[in-house]
Design brief:
The protein is an all-alpha fold. 64% of the residues lie in helices and 0% in strands. The protein has helices spanning 2-5, 9-12, 16-43, 54-61, 71-79.
C-alpha cells in the first residue's frame, strides 16, 4: 500500500471503516497482481486448447465460501443470541 500512497499518514488519518476498506482493496489488488504474474508465466505455454482467460483463472484461485447461511443467522450464533 505504501507504494501507492507513499506515506502511511494519509491512511492513518482516515476513519477506521474507510481505512479498513482501503487496506482490503490494496490487499486484493496485490493478490490480483500476484496471480496475473502467475497467469503470464502459464500463458507462454498455453495453446488454443488449453487457453484460460485471466478472469476465469483468477476466480478459480479464490477459496470457495463454505458457509452458505444468511449473515443474520451467523451473527446470532456468534453473539450467542437465539437458538
Amino acid at each position: 500500500m505504501l507504494h501507492r500512497y507513499g506515506n502511511i499518514e494519509y491512511v492513518m488519518r482516515l476513519p477506521l471503516h474507510r481505512a479498513a476498506k482501503l487496506i482490503a482493496k490494496a490487499a486484493e489488488e496485490k493478490r490480483r497482481e500476484y496471480y496475473f504474474q502467475m497467469w503470464l508465466m502459464r500463458f507462454a505455454m498455453m495453446d488454443n486448447d488449453s487457453f484460460v482467460p485471466f478472469d476465469e483463472f483468477y476466480e478459480s484461485t479464490k477459496a470457495p465460501q463454505v458457509d452458505k447461511r444468511p449473515k443474520d443467522e451467523i451473527m446470532r450464533e456468534l453473539l450467542g443470541r437465539g437458538e
